[in-house]
């Protein structure tokens, strides 16, 4: 709490600052005296010290604006009907099983209340009510779906809760115009204490979490080094060192130091520059909505609270009517302590501040209580500030059901009846999913179903391995939020050193050869099907002993470490781990179909280049003549009978589109971005209007409702939309 007090001096009036004061070294550095911490009355007076409301008012406005935008995007207003469509058989994952979504039109009303609350926060209009409207609906939606949890969504809810208790409407607010008695009045220092400490915790504990060995050794986010944003670093460093030193080392140092560097006057300008650069990079690296901009909005909170007055005083006088106040000094407020006169409210505010900060420091390490939510990583992702510490890839997911009465066995498509993939990594969600499936499957004549999950995951570039026991019927399996999950398989951390060997093996392969590293437990087996496209597939054993069963040929072959066996394409095989220790092996394969296709593409490209250069002397056969016509019909389809030629021409058109978009100017890119956001917000607004009309006067005839929804679904011109979607599918162009 005390760390925030140093800026309180900026909350004093100009007259107070003009008085000659003799300050000790501690007071000059931190803004408070040692005596302020030596007794409870002194601490209460410190936390309720009068402070300028300007910086808090600007932050309130920016936060409300960002939440207004966030509601239409990451909160999902623009596609709410897809998520909560009435009557759709959907398995949901609320924090508490009794929480269920309201009917669709009422869910739109919930979002309207949340939107109006965020708008009210931004304007400072009926401020307390607006905060209550925002956080009540926000936390309801947050708790309704664990699959959407992340750290920044949790942070938004915390900040909204804090603002409800603060005097955020004392500066640049509609409430200040309605009620002159609160306009430009001072706020207690604890308002800044909470927000600054919250942001300090976000940075610092995120840094503590990054002391994890996987992050320090560069395995968590190694793929980021290949992003174009890191190209300047790759001029002087190899990509491996960019990953280790810049991505991982830089992220660790910034998170650990940002909170401290923002605190002190001497280092704050440098800290603001680096954290701003960091968050701008994150806005391009990740799809994390408003989070980078919300963190940018928090940085000025660490400056002197009167910075808006000094900043806006440089604007022309004609603009100051609409700009925040720049000249008058803040007025006294009953929320603050003057002349050591303290009320019960001041003491409650101090108690709340201390308890809240302790609770926020404790929660990221509270996983020893909620042990049922622990998997390979601790707790539900969202409140531990372990941002980007763990990356996962899923190689194989199989859902098996068994009819409890007939014994019939069948398989389900992974993710059936769900709209998310997060359930694959969390035992609590898997339990909810299995329970939901057991309720839906009887509709398809499957009685008393047993559900088994076989999920293979690699975390931070380790072996692919099972995360849950595939022999356990999850429907009847025990699960408690306060007891360890008994059907969670342990992460084979003893095999982590193999990761350096993986890089050596992958580096020795050509571009057409793929490899997958597998680890399995004694007594279990992997059943796998090799596609006909994957020729020359072989299994190489690295550790332990395995038996490979070729199902159709009824062969059973024992394979020792250092040995390999070729498995047939277009057929099933099983790999049994027969050693007493986990087995490790790797699949090496070539996609022969893709390799042949690339070879044909190379030949067609050479022919097309010769045609363009006028060096092609041989007459073209009919199936290759579309190559000559492609340049004459640029931007339109060319009728090609040969499927390889047709696919080649389609690929060439895509590459041209990619090049065109990459070379587009800033104005064109901004226009594309604005058009896309316009249609997103437009759909959310129109669907909300339809829902409010339905609640007010009832449903219209089906034909009218169909026309209204079709109008809301109208998108940007067909060519541009399809182009965007096609480009997303192009490998290597995800940054577009």
From TrEMBL:
One of its GO terms (molecular function) is vitamin binding. One of its GO terms (cellular component) is endoplasmic reticulum membrane. Residues 715-736 have a biased composition (Basic and acidic residues). Residues 48-307 form the HTTM-like domain. It catalyses: 4-carboxy-L-glutamyl-[protein] + 2,3-epoxyphylloquinone + H2O + H(+) = phylloquinol + L-glutamyl-[protein] + CO2 + O2. Its EC number is 4.1.1.90. It is a multi-pass membrane protein. Its main location: endoplasmic reticulum. Residues 1-23, 714-736 are annotated as: Disordered. It is found in: Endoplasmic reticulum membrane. It comes from the Eukaryota. Keywords: Acetylation, Disulfide bond, Endoplasmic reticulum, Lyase, Membrane, Transmembrane, Transmembrane helix. The chain crosses the membrane at residues 108-141, 153-169, 241-263, 270-295. PANTHER family: VITAMIN K-DEPENDENT GAMMA-CARBOXYLASE. This is Vitamin K-dependent gamma-carboxylase.
């Amino acid at each position: 709490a005390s760390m925030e007090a140093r800026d309180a001096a900026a909350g004093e009036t100009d007259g107070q600052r003009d008085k000659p004061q003799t300050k000790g070294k501690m007071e000059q550095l931190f803004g408070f005296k040692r005596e302020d911490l030596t007794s409870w009355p002194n601490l209460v007076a410190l936390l309720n010290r009068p402070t300028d409301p300007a910086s808090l008012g600007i932050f309130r406005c920016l936060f409300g604006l960002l939440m207004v935008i966030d509601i239409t995007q990451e909160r999902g207003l623009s596609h709410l009907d897809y998520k909560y469509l009435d009557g759709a058989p959907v398995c949901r994952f609320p924090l508490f099983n009794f929480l269920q979504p309201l009917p669709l039109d009422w869910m739109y009303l919930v979002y309207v209340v949340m939107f109006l609350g965020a708008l009210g926060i931004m304007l400072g209009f009926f401020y307390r009510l607006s905060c209550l409207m925002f956080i009540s609906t926000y936390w309801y939606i947050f708790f309704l779906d664990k699959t959407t949890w992340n750290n920044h969504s949790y942070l938004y809810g915390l900040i909204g809760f804090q603002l409800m208790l603060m005097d955020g409407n004392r500066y640049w607010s509609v409430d200040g115009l309605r009620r002159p008695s609160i306009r430009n009045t001072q706020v207690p220092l604890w308002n800044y204490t909470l927000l600054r400490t919250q942001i300090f915790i976000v940075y610092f504990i995120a840094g503590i979490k990054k002391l994890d060995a996987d992050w320090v050794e560069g395995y968590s986010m190694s793929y980021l080094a290949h992003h174009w944003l890191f190209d300047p670093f790759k001029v002087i460093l190899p990509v491996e060192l960019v990953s280790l030193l810049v991505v991982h080392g830089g992220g660790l140092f910034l998170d650990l130091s940002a909170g401290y560097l923002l605190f002190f006057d001497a280092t704050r300008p440098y800290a603001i520059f680096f954290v701003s650069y960091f968050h701008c990079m994150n806005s391009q690296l990740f799809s994390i909505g408003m989070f980078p901009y919300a963190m940018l909005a928090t940085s000025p909170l660490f400056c002197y609270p009167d910075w808006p007055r000094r900043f806006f005083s440089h604007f022309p006088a004609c603009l100051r009517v609409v700009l925040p106040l720049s000249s008058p000094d803040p007025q006294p407020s009953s929320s603050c302590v003057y002349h050591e006169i303290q009320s019960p409210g001041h003491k409650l505010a101090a108690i709340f501040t201390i308890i809240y900060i302790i609770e926020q420091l404790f929660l990221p390490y509270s996983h020893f209580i909620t042990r049922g939510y622990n998997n390979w990583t601790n707790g539900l992702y969202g409140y531990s500030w372990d941002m980007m510490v763990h990356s996962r890839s899923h190689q194989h997911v199989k859902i098996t059901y068994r009819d409890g009465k007939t014994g019939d066995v069948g398989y389900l498509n992974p993710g059936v009846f769900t709209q998310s993939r997060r359930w694959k990594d969390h035992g609590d969600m898997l339990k909810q999913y299995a329970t939901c499936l057991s309720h839906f499957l009887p509709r398809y004549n499957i009685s008393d179903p047993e559900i088994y999950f076989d999920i293979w995951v690699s975390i931070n570039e380790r072996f692919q391995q099972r995360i849950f026991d595939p022999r356990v019927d999850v429907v009847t399996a025990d699960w408690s939020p306060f007891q360890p999950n008994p059907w969670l398989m342990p992460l084979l951390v003893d095999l982590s050193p193999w990761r350096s060997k993986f890089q050596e093996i992958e580096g020795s392969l050509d571009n057409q050869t793929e490899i997958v590293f597998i680890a399995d437990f004694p007594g279990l087996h992997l059943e796998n099907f090799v596609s006909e496209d994957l020729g020359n597939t072989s299994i190489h054993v690295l550790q332990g002993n395995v038996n490979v069963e070729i199902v159709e040929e009824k062969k059973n072959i024992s394979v020792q470490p250092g040995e390999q066996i070729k498995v047939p394409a277009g057929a099933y095989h099983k790999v049994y781990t027969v050693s007493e220790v986990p087995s490790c092996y790797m699949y090496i394969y070539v996609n022969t179909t893709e390799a042949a296709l690339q070879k044909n593409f190379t030949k067609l490209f050479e022919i097309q280049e010769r045609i363009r250069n006028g060096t092609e002397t041989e007459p073209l056969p009919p199936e290759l003549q579309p190559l000559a016509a492609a340049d004459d019909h640029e931007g339109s389809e060319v009728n090609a009978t040969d499927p390889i030629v047709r696919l080649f021409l389609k690929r060439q058109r895509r590459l041209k589109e990619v090049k065109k978009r990459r070379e587009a100017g800033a104005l064109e890119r901004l226009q594309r971005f604005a058009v896309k956001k316009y249609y997103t917000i437009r759909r959310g607004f129109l669907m909300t209007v339809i829902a409010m009309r339905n609640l007010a006067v009832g449903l219209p005839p089906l034909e009218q409702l169909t026309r209204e929804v079709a109008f809301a679904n109208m998108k940007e011109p067909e060519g541009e939309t399809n182009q965007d979607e096609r480009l997303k599918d192009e490998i290597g162009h995800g940054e577009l």
